[in-house]
Structure formats: C-alpha cells, structure tokens
Automatic annotation (TrEMBL), chain A:
Keywords: Cell membrane, Membrane, Transmembrane, Transmembrane helix. This is Branched-chain amino acid ABC transporter permease. The chain crosses the membrane at residues 7-27, 33-50, 57-77, 129-149, 179-199, 211-238, 250-273. Pfam families: BPD_transp_2. It is found in: Cell membrane. The keyword Manganese does not apply. It comes from Enterovirga aerilata.
From TrEMBL, chain B:
It comes from Enterovirga aerilata. The keyword Nucleus does not apply. Keywords: ATP-binding, Nucleotide-binding, Transport. This is ATP-binding cassette domain-containing protein. GO terms for cellular component: plasma membrane. SUPFAM superfamilies: P-loop containing nucleoside triphosphate hydrolases. Transmembrane segments: none annotated. GO terms for molecular function: ATP binding; ATP hydrolysis activity. SMART domains: AAA. Residues 5-252 form the ABC transporter domain. Pfam families: ABC_tran.
C-alpha cells in the first residue's frame, strides 16, 4: 500500500509541476526549462526552516513556495526586460549555479543530500491524509491553471503571444504579465518541492538537475501544451513509466540512462506523429464555459 | 479647441537616413488631421516615434500637457494614445469580439491578484466590456462576424477590426496608419463614418493615407511630409492643388 501512496504522490506532484510549467512555457510562451530549480528551492527552504529553525511545517512550506516565487522574480525581471530569449540562458545558469552551490555548502547537506527532514501529517493523521493533501494541491493547481487560461487573463496572454507590440500599444505591460505568470508557476513548483521534502524526508541536489527539466518538459509536450488536461495525462504517463521499467529486471546502472532515453525518445516520437501532444489545443483561444454566450440574438 | 497631442522639434535619424527632422505638429480634440506624402516621407515613422516603438533623438511629445516622450509604448498607450497598424497586427488566435475585449487600456481581469481577490469585480467588468465591444462591432458593421476568427475575415473587414480595437481603448488621441489601404466598397463609407464619429466624440485623430479622396472627404486639415520634414499644412484641397507638392509626391 505504501508503494501505491508513493506513486500517487509522485504523480500528483508531477501534475503540479507540469501544470505550473504549462502556464509558463505554454500559456505565457516563456522559454525556460529551469522549473526544477524552483522545485528545489521550495524543498530546501521548507526543509531547512522546519528542521533547523523550528518553523512549523505548514508555515515552512508556504515560505518555501514564497522563496521560489521571489527567486523566480529575481531571475525573470532583469532578463525579460532585455528580451524573452535571455530568460532561457539566465534561468539555466541559475539552475546549474544554485545546485552547484547546494552541493558545496554544508548546511544544505552538500552533494550527499539533506536528511532528517521533519515529517508532516503522516505521524498524526496517517499517510492517507498526506496523499489527500498532495492530491488536493494538484487538483487546485489544475483548476487554477484552467481559470487563468480561459478567463480574461488567458485571453490577454494569447494576444500577447500573437503580437507583443500590438499588445503593448493597447496599454498592456507585457513584461509585468510575463513576470507574474513566471512567479506564479515557479511558486507552485516551490510548493510541490516542499510537499515532496516533508514526505520523502530526504532530498539531494541531483534530483533537480537537467534530467528533471527534461521530464517536466516531456510531460507538458507529450501530454499537450496549452491544454488543461495535457500536463495531467503527461504527468501520469511519465511518472508511471519509470516505475514500470523498474519492474523489468535491469541493472541499476542502466535504469537512469534508460529513463533519459525514454524522455527524449517520447519527445522525438511525438514531434513527428503528434506534435500537438496527446490532448490537442486548438489554435483558437476559447473562453471557459461559464462565460455568457454572445454573438447570438 | 484644445491641443491633445503636441509634438515639438522631433528628430530621428537611422545612420544617415533622416526619418524625422524638427517636426512640429499639434493634434486637437475633435479634429482629424491627414498626413500625406510619398512613401518614405516619414509618416509611419512619426507614428512609431509618437507611440514609442523607437525613441526620438530629440524633441518633446506631450499628451494632454504631460510629457510622454520618455515613456515606454505601453505607458503612452495607458495615458490615452492609441494607434492602428499598416500591416494590421490583429491577434489571429482570437475571435473578432475577443480582439476588441483586449482593447480597453485598463483591464482588471489582467491582474492575477484581482482574479484571486476580486472575482466579482472582474466578472462585472468583463460583462460591461463585452457590451461595449458588441456596441462597437455594431457601429463598425462587424456584428455578424463577432465570433469569427480575426484571421478569417476579408482584408477590409480586418482593417475595420483594427480600428474597432483601437476604439475600445477610449483614447484621447488616435493614430490611424493607412486605414483604407485594401479597403473597398461598403467598408469605405463605414470607415469614413466611424472616424468622423470618433472625432466628434472629442478625440484627436491623425490619419496616414494614400487614398486622396478619403483624406479630402474626411480631414479638417492636411499636413504634407517629405524626407522627414513637414513641408506644408492647410486644407487638404489646397495641398492637392499645389503643383510643387504634387511634383514631390509623384516624383516627376
């Protein structure tokens, strides 16, 4: 049973990561693959605050998410003011740099990882409660993404992606919108990191490296970029698949590279056969169903 | 008749090419000014300078008495300056109605915190903006295509959508870049009427247009530009009749 719980938590965290990354790369059209670094910041900040400074875990989790948000603003603001292309470079640099720093300072546990992270809920309310919490966060993330994408904000993002200059000439601050979406998406990734840390109670810098970037990108692209359900489908598929290969009786040394191959292979296959992903988004922006119908007499 | 947009001593050079040379121009509330001149005279460049697409080398631009020449494009627009584009620049992934819905310059639905904490306000504003958009579509003869994708319309209709979107901006000053190029038949009269109505509501309008008949019928005043300079201004009929300007225009 514990195995199933763990798998459900991994899938739910995958949904949070993929959906929030979909906001950034899909709806806002921001090119960045450094999503895992904000996942890492959430995990480390929350774990360290709770373990070393006696901050209650729920508060530490929220602070972890806020720290990820603040870091993302610090990365995005200067680079987006110059041009969208700089965000990719700045964010990858930040990802590699920060993880290197985590490996080389002692209070983070260094390359060996951070251990003895205080647990949350499991002791008092049981594992099921924690699973419910993480699944709840995943559901809320999906609903939030959907309400943003198909409301006035999503319409504005769609317009901004179509023509940024015309968008600006209507009085819209495209940079502010991009930073806001980047911060929201990164904050959600931070929250996912905190939820991860207090369940598994052990994190290493390694798990937030480029392989994780590739995994999250694959979830979004294979599932269906700019759709509500695509990242969900992608997260389920990509979290379940690596688990499935572990059932094959392969040497451990092969498993890591095989996962990497699987991600790149999937992306390549989808590029040729189904570039729109499993769940296809129309090119046409659509409001949510709750919007009043107009255009009919 | 109050001045809305005032341009004083505006200069811009790209290397050796002069696109604006000490330009002075005043646009007043309720009046339509037509910019005429041959290709390369600097008409569209003047629009780009005023809307902040690129900065001027020298000179000042004020909107309702406040300087806007150091502001970014979106801030100038937020102060009440809107424009259309020669090459349309509609939002192709949006319907005609949604193109207009992105038009208003202050829109609460585009602030994330408002989506979270002021949902009622956002919904009210959305409904109100929708009503206004439908009204503008009615006036521009586009009501029947409200739900059509902007990219699927005829060129003339797309030009009207561009103007309609700018109208949603409720600006103090409206710059129209070749609104009639490629527009024929029914849309011609609609465009005339729409621009006249906007001016009548107190907006300062400036039109760049090669369709001389359109300019003559519509504008209160004409401004002739050549090589980045304002060469002459006055009633459009007088400018057209001036053999010196005609020679510059046709290059004979």
């Amino acid at each position: 049973m514990e195995y199933i719980y763990t798998l459900v938590i991994l899938i739910a965290l995958g949904v949070v990561l993929a959906s929030s990354f979909n906001l950034i790369i899909g709806y806002a059209g921001l090119v960045s693959i450094a999503h895992p670094v904000f996942y890492a910041i959430g995990a480390y900040v929350s774990a360290l605050l709770a373990r070393d400074h006696g901050v209650p875990v729920p508060v530490a989790m929220i602070l972890g998410a806020l720290a990820a948000m603040a870091a993302s603003i610090a990365v995005a603001l200067p680079s987006l003011r110059v041009s969208g292309d700089y965000l990719l470079i700045a964010s990858i640099g930040f990802q590699l740099g920060l993880l290197e720093a985590i490996k080389n300072v002692s209070f983070t546990g260094g390359a060996g990882g951070l251990t003895n992270i205080p647990p949350f809920l499991i002791q008092t309310a049981g594992r099921e409660a924690y699973v419910a919490l993480v699944v709840g966060v995943a559901v809320l993330t999906v609903l939030l993404t959907r309400s943003i994408a198909h409301g006035p904000y999503g319409r504005a993002l769609s317009a901004m992606r179509d023509d940024e200059l015309a968008f600006a000439a209507l009085g819209r601050n495209a940079v502010a919108m991009k930073v806001a979406v980047f911060a929201l998406g990164s904050g959600l990734a931070g929250l996912a990191g905190a939820l991860y840390a207090h369940y598994f109670r052990f994190v290493t810098p390694e798990q937030f490296e480029l392989l994780q970037s590739a995994a999250i990108l694959t979830m979004v692209v294979v599932g269906g970029i700019r759709t509500t359900w695509g990242p969900v489908v992608g997260a389920i598929l990509l979290q379940a698949l690596p688990q499935a290969i572990t059932f094959l009786d392969l040497p451990v040394a092969l498993l890591g590279p095989l996962q990497g191959l699987l991600f790149t292979g999937l992306v390549l296959v989808f590029m040729f056969w189904r570039p729109q992903g499993l769940v296809a988004a129309g090119e046409f922006w659509r409001p949510s169903r709750e919007a009043p119908d107009v255009g009919r007499p | 008749m109050s001045a809305v947009l005032e341009i004083r001593g505006l200069d811009k050079r790209f290397g050796g090419i002069v696109v604006a040379d000490a330009i002075d121009l005043t646009l007043s509330a309720g009046r339509v000014v037509g910019l005429i001149g041959p290709n390369g005279a600097g008409k569209t460049s003047l629009f780009n300078l005023v809307s902040g697409i690129f900065p001027a080398d020298a000179g000042t631009i004020t909107l309702d008495g406040e300087r806007i020449d150091r502001l970014k494009t979106h801030r100038r627009a937020a102060r009440g300056l809107s424009r259309t584009w020669q090459n349309l620049r509609l939002f192709p992934s949006l319907s005609v109605l949604d193109n207009l819905m992105v038009g208003p310059r202050h829109y609460p639905g585009e602030k994330l915190w408002r989506l979270a904490f002021d949902r009622g306000g956002v919904r009210r504003r959305e409904a109100e903006t929708r009503r206004r958009a439908l009204d503008v579509l009615e006036r521009t003869g586009l009501a029947a295509v409200a739900k059509t994708r902007a990219a699927d319309l005829t060129f003339g209709q797309q030009k009207l959508v561009g103007v309609a979107r700018a109208l949603m901006n409720e600006s103090r000053c409206l710059l129209l870049d070749e609104p009639m190029a490629g527009v024929e038949g029914h849309a011609y009269e609609t465009m005339q009427r729409v621009v006249r109505d906007v001016a009548a509501s107190g907006v300062a309008v400036c039109v760049v247009e090669h369709n001389v008949a359109f300019i003559r019928d519509l504008c209160d005043e004409g401004v002739f530009m050549f090589a980045g300079k304002v060469l002459a201004r006055g009633p459009v009929a007088d400018l057209i009749a001036d053999p010196r300007l005609t020679e510059l225009y046709f290059g004979t």
